[in-house]
Structure formats: C-alpha cells, structure tokens
Amino acid sequence: MRIPMKRLVAVGAASMVFLAACGGKAGEGPGGEQGASDEPATGGTVHMLQNSDFSYLDPARGFDGGVNAFYRLVYRGLTMQTAGDADDPNEIVPDLATGLGEVSDDGLTWTYTLKDGIKFDNGDPITSAEMKFGISRAWDPEIGIGSPWVKQVIDAPDDYEGPYRTGDIPTIETPDEKTIVFHLKAPFPEFDAVLAQANAVPFPEGTGDGDEFLSDIVSSGPYDLESYTPGSSISLVRNENWDPATDDVRKAYPDAWEFEVGLDQSTIDERMIAGQGADANAISGTLQASTLPRLQDPRVSERVVEAPAYCLTYMSMNTTSEVFSDVRVRQAINFAIDRSAVVNASGGTQLADPATAILPPTVNGHKDFDLYPGVDGKGDLEAARELLEEAGVDDGFEFTLDIRSQPKMQAQAESIQQALEPLDVTVNLNVIDTSSYYETIGTPSQQNDAAISGWCPDWASSASTFIPPLFDGRNIVEKGNGNLAQIDDEAINTRIDEIMAMEDLEEANVAWGELDEQIMEQAPIAPLALEKGLFLPGENIAGFHPSTSMTDLTIIGLEDPSQG
C-alpha cells in the first residue's frame, strides 16, 4: 500500500492517521503503559486533525494509508482486516460474507455467501450483483487506479475495461442474490486478503461513473457522508441502515466524525498538546520532530502512544530515464546516500531507523542485509565514485526528484541533495501537492527521474504485498502504477511467480527475503528509513490503537460522550 506514507503504495501524509497492517500489542505508551485504550462509550463526536486532504473518497481510486482508514468507516467488503485491538490485528475475517472463501481443489475458484440484512445507506439491500459491480470498477482505466490486487489476481478478458466501458465481467459469477463466485488467473492462497482491499466493495449498479464519487459516496458502512469541502472539512454521521448485528469488527462508538483538513502540522501538534475544548476529543497523525522535547511534561507524556515501523520510506529511481538506466549509477546512489542524515531529517532516532533492505523487519520474510554499507554510519563516497567512473559519469550529472509538499519530506530530499553534492550530482526538487502526489508519480508519463515514496504491506503476514507491486514489470500501468522504478526484469518476474505459487507460507517468506537481496543488487530503489510513530490522542479519546500504517478508526470512541 502506498503511504503518504498503503499503499504505497503506500504509504499518506505523515500527518494523517494510517490504516494497514499492525503487529504486536497496540496502544502502548512509552515504558509499555497503555495509551488511550480504555473502553469507549457510545455517542459524541470524534475530531480528526490532519495536514492534507484524502486522495479520493472513491475507494476504486484511493490507495494510501490515510484514506484507507477513512474507507473502513463508510465502506464494507466481503472480508476485512480485523480490529486493531485484536490479538492478531493482521488476521483477515469475514465482513459482508458469512465466512471466508470456499476454495476449489485446484485453487482457481473462490465462493462467498452474503449475510442477511446488509444494506446501502438508502436502505436498498446489498446483493451479489452490487458486490460484483463494485469490484468490477477496479478495471476501469480512469477510475480503477487504486489497489491493483483484484486486477492482478482475478481472471478477466484481456480487453476488459470495467462496467462502464465494457459491461459485465464473466469471470465473476452471481448464481443467486447471496452467492458470488470468483475465477482466478492462478491459485492464490491469500485471496481472502485480496477481497479485504479498499476497492473490493459494493456499489449500486450503474453508479460511480466519471466524477460522481469525487464529492459524494454510497455508504455500506456505519457512517455516511454529511458534507465534504475539499481541502477543508469532512463530516460523517451515522448510517441508519447499517446493522451492527451484521458487523463483528466495526464498533462505531461515536455518533459523528469531524475531519479538519489542511492544518499546518505545527498547529496540529500545538492543539493536541493543549487539548482544549473539542480537541480533547481529537486524534491526529504522528507528531513532528520539533514537538518531541515538549513531551517531557508529565501532563502530556502520559497521553503519548508509540507505534512501530511497518512501512519503508525509499527513493525510487526510474530505470527508464537516461540518468538511471545504468545499474552502476543506481548502485552508486545507494552507496552515497547518508542514511543517518535521512533519519535526522525524519525526526531523529525516536522517529526513524535507517533502512538497507526492501522489507521492514516487521514484515514476514525480512532478511537482514546491507549491500551498500556506509562508512561510520554514513555514506561511502569512494565506493560511489568508483562506480560512477565505471559508468562514465564521474564528472557529474543532474536529475529531478519528485517529493511531497511537506516539511519532513523536503528535509529528507535535502539530505539526499547534500549527500550527492560532493559527487557533482545535482538534485532538482519537484514539489507536488500531497493530495495528488501518488496519482502524479503513479502515472509514468508524468514521472520524473526519481521520487521519494513509501510502502506499507497491504497485509503483513507475508511479503507478497510488498515485492510484487513494487518490482513486477508486468504490473506497470499507465495510471496507478506502483512500480515507480519501472523495472521489468525477466528473472525477477519469474521468481515472483515461483514464490507466489508456493503453498508453504514459511517457505515463501524465506524466498521473499532472498529475492529482496536479488532485487537490491540491481538497485532500482534506495531504501532510506523505517519511520516509527509517536501519537498524542486527546484526553477523552478511548480505543486508540495506532500504527504507522494502521490505526483502526472503527474502534475509536470517547470515554465520556457527554464531553463531545
């Protein structure tokens, strides 16, 4: 998943609350104390303060951590990732379906049965036809720029372009109103997790064409959209046609949600520290580095909640651009980058660790290696110079680096500028608004030489949602592209197929780690940092279990709703 920093796709502004995989015990503050995890009560309004707007209200388009958290409040799928406070918050559980999928002996057919009593916000029943229609929107070349998984796994005619352009998709069958059957391209044991993706949700047939869902939604979850002012505010109210008896995960404690968008990050942190008025009922994303010294105040420190790093911050290098077409140049960049400086730019060691591999340690399959070690914890300029000389560019060059319009991301980019300057490498920064960043860099025709991005696992039980989206050359598309390096290597593609076919998940995870190292030999990206999180929920917030890539909004509420 991008992350601004899920996709990925990862992955959403660091100022947002993120949604994706989360392992270990959540909701623990420094020293292991519980933070904001008392049992919520029903009622009141929870406020969310964030720097940037969500990418899209339409789940077929959005694919980043912040908006995925929002989607869980308003949309439902056949399956979903379980609650953030569960013993195993990575577990995939039934949602609109009565159970997980029933798979055929050859692994190519998966069948689901819908629950009774499930409805849209207008009271119309959700049937298999609406489920099929909503999922088929993922194939639309303009709208379906979100999660790629359903398109990659579900079989479909080569020329299929979604319901608006092509019509019915024959490889998803609906023999009756309660039954939906999926035919896959190849066996995929983790298909239940594919259907837990944000774009695998139902919509009434015929809705959502063009820009219809840019400012409105059709809700199937516990909340409905009351108002939306892009770049400013989002208001959610209860969906009276959501039946909690059909939903085992979403608790939907608050009566309403208010999202304040476009706030300066310093303002957000200041308000969260003060916690006055409605801000006692507020949450926000991870704190910025400049705020950390103020957390020593005992009145504040008791509210701090930690979250481990589940996502990778990295710099992709466009292998189709002239400047990065030579593997030796890409390897030189990996040697030259001072990752300790990137960590400092990310807020210091309290908020980040240096990254040398693709897979974070929290993702099953991680292998600990460093092909491009620095000197004294910094870069190795001599090793970089030797490679640039071999490549015939030792007299220097310049390239354009795409970055998000946020101070931390700009500081990370400046650390790269400074590290490469002694090599006479000039890095020109192209600053893009956060709300449109991933759509821009995910469109190859608009992509420059390099980009700082992030990726979180769509499900953390294996690396299958990390390596293939970023490095399978067959997944390069005109819009919504996750393979920012645009690397299309036959050996990598073949090995991905071999690992994806492995039925033994432990064996596959070992193989993913080995492939991680194989890919880094070609250096299509430069791993930069593993960003941790420190959160400061309001004093009246309960049920807050954060992660740098997954904060489950559906279980958050207020301790005392009369104060909200």
UniProtKB/TrEMBL annotation:
Every Solute-binding protein family domain range: 91-473
Location of the protein in the cell: Cell membrane
GO molecular function: peptide transmembrane transporter activity
An example Gene Ontology biological process: peptide transport
Primary site of residence: membrane
Keywords: Signal
Topology of the protein relative to the lipid bilayer: Lipid-anchor
InterPro entries: Peptide/Ni-bd, SBP_5, SBP_5_CS, SBP_5_dom
Signal peptide extent: 1-26
GO cellular component, one term: ATP-binding cassette (ABC) transporter complex
Entry-linked Pfam families: SBP_bac_5
Family of this protein: Belongs to the bacterial solute-binding protein 5 family.
Protein name as annotated: ABC transporter substrate-binding protein
